[in-house]
Here is the input.
Amino acid sequence: METKFSKMAGIDKAIMVFVYVILFAFMAAIIVPMVYIVLASFIDPITLQNQGLTFDFSKWTLTAYERVMSNSQIWIGFKNALIYSVLSTIIAGVVTLLAAYPMSRPDFKGRGFFNTIYVITMYFGGGLIPTYLVVKQTGLIGNMWSLFLPGGVAVGNMIIVRNYFTNSIPHELGEAAEIDGCSKFRTFISVVIPLSMPILAVMAVFSMVAYWNDWFTAMIYLGGKGQPLPLVLRGILIKSSASSAQASLISGGYA
Here is the structure.
């Protein structure tokens, strides 16, 4: 039976095979570490360090999961990270949409100027210390709002949404809605938003992942209060590394 692949020319077959090899390599680079982590979580740490992965189930244990379940800091950090990620995603989505929609309208005066200002902020920033001083002067230090209000607009995401509005939503739909009596804001809510669900989903994933993995901002602005999960895990790893180093020094001294 003749297949689509067999009908291809020789160079097309070679390119197709090369593409599939690259895709499988990327897939393996993602899946193999994940499988290793899952398997390693069931093995005693000493056995894992000395022997590596083993399928001798007598040496498997649930101690790691028991320690996680009994650690209240991890659950509090998980709750905080979930709250921060959801709030930040909502705020970033609303602000990004409100910024991108005017930038996509050809009748918006000064659109080129504001787009230029937005792009400049992508390449030039005040830096950590000036940003910290601004956050401190606004009274947000130690407050969860310091995690997402200063960076509520991600210019890269705004440009992506703006281009989606420009290229995927006909401007005539907005004009038709305004002829029917809709205000610009009602047109935005009733026409533009329902047609923008695909890009909204993409932006939500981008924002959620970015804020979920962000531990540095929480470390700078929150200190020891309301730490999210990545910062809690970082503290546990630092304490574990310090304990291991101290044990090595003690054992070396006795030796």
Observations:
- Residues 93 and 204 are 7 Å apart (CA to CA).
- The radius of gyration is 26 Å.
- The chain has a mean pLDDT of 82.
- The first helix runs from residue 10 to 40.
